[in-house]
């Protein structure tokens, strides 16, 4: 899955503060320009570190929160083959969360700190997961569109200047592209199915199309940190470039499914070869960022409930480990 | 009642398929809600294994029956009274302690069963068992370690885990109960008599309970009925949820 909101102006976490450029800064930028990977022990500007922590943490949180809307359909998957595929997919997402948290930890924050920020409502995760999964077709639409959009964003991250993040993303991307194909195949079965199944597929496309476009974040002219992040090679392409790529790749896929993209302004520009699309309703996006999406409350409540109800289990594990260590000491002493 | 080998295979595979499926379903209910991320992944992974086993057993059952029912037909179009799972596995998750104790009591049984089935002269059974065995060995290690952590953890965790053990114990007898299918296969040397698994199961459970500082409950009265389709009220809700789509759209292919 994917994290967005990185470039929102409302987000103050990594605003570069004006300061003097030091020799370290210059050497750092030379390494970046030479496409060298930055590793955890290397010197890096505070802003670079903060930006990465924020982005990787948002990404990790997105994976974890993203388990909820899809997990919502595991017990109702309509065939055992689909059930197994969905279980495996959601498990992959938990795994992505794990190694992204680990990548963030190389920058000097602990997973517990990051999780606390999420549960306190102080950290962001991808807004896409604040939409509900209402029918089975939503599982297909998430795989096809949401994972499809995620891949557009994430493939360039495999070349991110920060080594641990880039390496984590290589594995994430491999799995995401598998999920995307699975999601599309699920949609295909619905599109080729009964009239009711086709209706289900169209309804899911109607609801997920615009939120998927919003996953790429605000338009370039509204984006706060793009220039610095591009210079640091944390980001390689602008939000609008990636969004356009996604639209160009996805429209023919929808046509192949025989489904209609819910945008009356969508048309192919024969000259540019790109699809032009209608205006995005950013007010909806901004409301969700503010916490007013259909499922914002439910998602965080579910995470908090799991965390709170699991407290006695984690305490038991800690207590047991301490007892073991003590017994071991006694035995060797 | 005597039954022929195909009927026995059908009944036997159904019992194992249904038991795996229902337990896999229960574990999958945890997905996204476990006490920590590692456990979220582990429980989902075990659910995945169990549903995988269910697919193999139900496919085998369908073949043995010879009436054209495949894994999905068997999973999604039977009502409670045709399900043959053990009552233990349909018991609700309640909390992590109940889930783990239920899992351990089952895993300790399934590892003994699959070890024996892996050498069955029936190639179909032996093949499934050999594959499943690798996975259930990991399952029992995982659940046993958690029983020990929770039992020998804090006072609270110990009390919760003991409560789970006491509550679930009366559902363990059924795992060792013979039915017409298992008796026919035992007589033919294809599968063990379920009662033969008890000693090894009990020894493992006793060891883990002792290390977990838990008291092994006395063997008193045991719940039965799963093997003849008389279940607890919980299974109906589980199936209603699981079977919703194929029931609501009976002509659809997914």
Automatic annotation (TrEMBL), chain A:
One MF annotation (Gene Ontology) recorded for this entry: phenylacetyl-CoA 1,2-epoxidase activity
UniProt cross-references to SUPFAM superfamilies, sorted A to Z: Ferritin-like
GO cellular component: cytosol
BP GO terms, sorted: phenylacetate catabolic process
Pfam families, per database record: PaaA_PaaC
Region annotation Disordered: where it falls in the sequence: 1-22
Source superkingdom: Bacteria
Family matches, as Gene3D superfamilies: 1.20.1260.10
Protein name: 1,2-phenylacetyl-CoA epoxidase subunit A
């Amino acid at each position: 899955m994917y994290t967005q909101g990185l470039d929102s102006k409302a987000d103050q976490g990594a605003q570069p503060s004006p300061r003097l450029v030091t020799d370290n800064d210059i050497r750092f930028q030379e390494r970046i320009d030479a496409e060298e990977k930055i590793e955890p022990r290397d010197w890096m500007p505070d802003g670079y570190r903060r930006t990465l922590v924020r982005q990787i943490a948002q990404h990790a949180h997105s994976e974890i929160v993203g388990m909820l809307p899809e997990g919502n359909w595991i017990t109702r998957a309509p065939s055992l083959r689909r059930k197994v595929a969905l279980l495996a997919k959601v498990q992959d997402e938990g795994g992505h969360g794990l190694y992204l948290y680990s990548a963030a930890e190389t920058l000097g924050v602990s997973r517990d700190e990051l999780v606390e920020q999420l549960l306190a409502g102080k950290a962001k995760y991808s807004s896409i997961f604040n939409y509900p999964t209402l029918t089975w077709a939503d599982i297909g639409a998430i795989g096809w569109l949401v994972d499809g959009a995620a891949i557009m964003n994430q493939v360039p991250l495999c070349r991110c200047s920060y080594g641990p993040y880039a390496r984590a993303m290589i594995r994430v991307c491999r799995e995401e592209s598998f999920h995307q194909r699975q999601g599309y195949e699920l949609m295909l079965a619905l599109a080729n199915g009964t009239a009711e199944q086709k209706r289900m597929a169209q309804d899911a496309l109607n609801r997920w199309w615009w939120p998927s476009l919003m996953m790429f974040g605000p338009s370039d002219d509204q984006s706060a940190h793009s220039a610095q992040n591009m210079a640091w090679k944390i980001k390689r392409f602008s939000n609008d470039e990636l969004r356009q790529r996604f639209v160009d790749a996805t429209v023919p896929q929808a046509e192949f499914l025989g489904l209609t993209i819910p945008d009356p302004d969508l048309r192919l520009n024969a000259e540019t070869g790109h699809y032009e699309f209608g205006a995005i309703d950013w007010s909806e996006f901004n409301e969700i960022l503010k916490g007013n999406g259909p499922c914002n409350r439910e998602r965080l409540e579910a995470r908090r409930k799991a965390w709170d109800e699991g407290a006695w289990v984690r305490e038991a594990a800690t207590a047991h480990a301490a007892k073991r260590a003590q017994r071991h000491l006694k035995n060797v002493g | 009642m005597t039954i022929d080998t195909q009927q026995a295979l059908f009944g036997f595979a159904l019992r194992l398929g249904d038991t795996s499926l229902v337990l896999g379903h229960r574990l999958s209910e945890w997905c996204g809600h476990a006490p920590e991320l590692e456990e979220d992944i582990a429980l989902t992974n075990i659910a995945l294994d169990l549903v995988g086993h269910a697919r193999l057993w139900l496919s085998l059952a369908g073949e043995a029956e010879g009436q054209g029912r495949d894994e999905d037909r068997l999973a999604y179009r039977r009502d409670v009274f045709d399900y043959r799972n053990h009552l233990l596995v349909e018991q609700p998750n309640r909390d992590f302690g109940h889930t783990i104790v239920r899992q351990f009591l089952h895993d300790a049984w399934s590892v003994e069963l699959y070890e024996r089935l892996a050498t069955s002269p029936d190639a179909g059974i032996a093949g499934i068992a050999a594959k499943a065995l690798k996975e259930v060995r990991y399952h029992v290690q995982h659940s046993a370690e958690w029983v020990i952590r929770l039992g020998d953890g804090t006072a609270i965790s110990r009390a919760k885990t003991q409560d789970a053990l006491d509550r679930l114990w009366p559902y363990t007898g059924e795992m060792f109960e013979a039915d017409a299918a298992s008796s026919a296969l035992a007589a033919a040397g294809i599968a063990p008599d379920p009662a033969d698994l008890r000693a090894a199961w009990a020894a493992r459970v006793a060891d883990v309970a002792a290390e977990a500082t838990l008291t092994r409950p006395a063997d008193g009265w045991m719940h039965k009925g799963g093997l003849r389709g008389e279940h607890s009220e919980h299974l109906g809700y589980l199936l209603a949820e699981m079977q919703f789509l194929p029931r609501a759209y009976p002509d659809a292919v997914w």
